[in-house]
Every structure is written in C-alpha cells, then in structure tokens.
Amino acid sequence: MRSKISYNLLFIVCAVLSLQLSCAHASRLQKKEAGVAWGKIESYFTPPADYINNYGNFRSPLKFYNGDTVATREDWLLRRKEIKDTWMGLMGMWPPVLTDQKFEIIETVEKDTYLQHKVRFYWTPNEQTEGYLLIPRNKGKKPAVITVFYEPETAVGMGNKPNRDFALQLTKRGFVTLSLGTTRTSLEKNYSIYYPGREYASIQPLSVLAYAAANALEALSKVKEVDADRIGIVGHSYGGKWSMFASCLYDKFACAAWIDPGIVFDETKAGGVNYWEPWYLGYYPPPWTNTWRKTGMIEDAKGLYPYLMNNNYDLHELHALMAPRPFLVSGGSSDPVERWIPLNHSIAVNRLLGYKNRVAMTNRPKHEPNPESNEIVYSFFECFLK
C-alpha cells in the first residue's frame, strides 16, 4: 500500500513539474516571439528628426478647455474625462453597452488550423448583425482582434481586395478574430449604422460604429478561447476610422491599428479624409433634398462636422484617450509622415504618464495596404497582445 501511495505521489509530483516546465517553456516562447516582433516595429515609434516635438497648431490635450495646464497624472484623469464627455456630448450619448450577450453560431466550417463560425449578435439594442469568428485549434486562452470593414467577408479571405484579409492572417498567427462589416447599408450606399434609425438618428454614425464595436468586444470576451484583457481592433480606410473611434472611445480595447483612415481633419485630402459625409460626422435629419452623397460634399456639409471645424476641435484629442494603451497608424496617402505632428500630442500625454513607445506610425505612398505594411501591423499585435 505504501509503495502504491508513493508511486501515486511521485506521479503527481512529476505531472506538476512537467506542467510547470511546459508553462515556463511556453512563457519563454511567448517572450521570444514578443522580442522578435518588437525588433520589427521598434523604429516606427520614433518620429523623423524634423518632426520630433513639433506640435503644430493643434490645441494641446494637456490643457483644459479653459486654458489651465495639465501638470500631473491626477490632472490628466480630469482632463481625459473632460475630453471624452465633451466629444460624447457633441456626437450623442451611447445607450448602455450590451455586456451580457453571447454569439449565436449560425454555421461552422472546419479549416486546417482553425474553425470558422458564422455568428449573429446585437451590435445595437435594436439591430443584429452577422460576422465571422475564427478560432485557432490550439488549446488555451488566446488574444483576439476585431476587424472592421464595409462587409465581413474581405477580412476572412473571401473578398477580392488584396492585402485586406487581416482576420485570416492574424488567425494564422494564433489570434482569435472577429470580422464585422456594414453589409446592408454599404449595399444601399448609406454605409454606417444609424441609431435608432436613419431618419431620426440621435448619435453621429461614426460614434455608433464605435458603440457597435464595443458591443462586439463584450460578446467576444465571452468566448471561452479568448483572453478578455487582450482584445485589439484593426481596420483599413472606412474601417480605419471605425477602429480609431472604437478604440479611443472604449477603454477595453487593449491596443489598436488604424490603417490610413485620415487621423485628423484634412479637407485637402477629400478622397479619403471625408469626415463631413453624413455617414461619419456630418449626419443631419430630413428633409434630404438631394442624393445622400451629394448633400455630404464639403461645401454643403451639415451636422456636427462644421461645428467641430469652426470651434477648433480635431481628432488628436481622441487619440490622447488611448494613453497609455498602444496604437499604430499604418499611414498611406491619407496619413503621410507629417501626421507625426498631431501624434506628438499623444506622445506628450504618455510621457506625462510615464510611458514611452506607445505611439507608432509607418508610411507608404498609396492608400492601399501592402504586404510590408501589413507585416508591421501583425507584428504590432504580436508584440502588444501576445
């Protein structure tokens, strides 16, 4: 009997040691992966020499709207609240975030290294949407990334736009991903989400997109394979605006990559930095005397956008809400190298809080992402989420 007990005890001890060694080995591998990823992206956290400490004419987030200076971390908490409350008040207050729902799985397709679920959930209190949930087959809790675009198929590799299969590529790297898109309104050329409806919306549509992403994060956090503290978001162009507003306005996003959204207002780049459109920050109620797009052109902009421009509000104030969470701007034609000027304000906020290497930018000539710029995006998430 004694030998049997000793054998069982020895077995348990060996099993525990084996588990500890396995966990230690996994931890070493994760640190090694993070180190390799950091080596790929480190240089993108420093502005070019010509832009270091260049703050331009942007109103400093480190000054209250009454002109008082933010000097301490405690001051920043008050200023941060002032920025967020002001912008949410201007854009329209969100309904309560839906924190208690889970995805309804509609169908499942088995892939070689992951499962692809088509899922349904409420992204506003009165509207459901469908997207794709991709889960790698390896065991254990995993980091996750939400991808957003005009429709959910492109990001999972079913679209015809090259270098935008972000969900698929991140899943191959071990992330759970959730791909979302505004399929119906994109087909109708109304694009965004209108709450509670298009003819009587009470919130600017770009903020509703952010709210929808917040609800998506809450549902994604209930997936058993997901580490709820390690969820990021990424999108390109339209999706870049969406991911930027979502991550800035909802603190539970651990980090974010914004791919050429136009990170500040810039009417010289009207092709992509078009926040005056009625599906972004230029919503206004009927009567609509012309077509939806024509009424959204700059010279006839309505809704919130003209007020923001006339009162010196710009999006760098929202960027500052990310601090100290890291973010990457994957810049193209809409976000050239001079965007370091507004980004320097977020660097200054992080510096006050005692953080560095939280704001990064890459640059390429074209609006479209390419394999090289995407590799930096994937390495960014590997570094900060894995």
Description of the structure:
- The protein starts with a helix and ends with a helix.
- The chain has 386 residues and is α/β, with parallel strands linked by helices.
- A hairpin with a 2-residue loop joins strand 2 and strand 3.
- The longest helix has 40 residues.
- The chain is globular.
- It has a 9-stranded mixed β-sheet, sandwiched between helices.
- The N terminus is likely disordered.
- The protein has 2 domains: 44 residues; 340 residues, 3-Layer(aba) Sandwich (Rossmann fold), CATH 3.40.50.1820.
- It contains 10 helices and 9 strands.
What is the CA-CA span between the terminal residues?
47 Å
Mean of the pLDDT scores?
A: 92
Structural class: alpha/beta
What's the alpha carbon Rg, rounded to whole Å? 22 Å
Number of strands: 9
**How many distinct helices?**
10
Which strand order do you get reading across the main beta sheet?
Answer: 1-2-3-5-4-6-7-8-9
- Say what the CATH topology of the largest domain is: Rossmann fold
Helices and strands, in order, run as HHEEEEHEHHEHEHHEHEH
| Biggest sheet features | 9 strands, mixed
Please give the share of residues in helix. 25-40%
Low-confidence stretches: 1-27
How many structurally independent domains?
A: 2
Shape: globular
CATH domain class name of the largest domain: Alpha Beta
The proportion of residues in beta strands is: 15-25%
> Which CATH architecture of the largest domain is right?
3-Layer(aba) Sandwich
CATH homologous superfamily assignment of the largest domain: Alpha/Beta hydrolase fold, catalytic domain
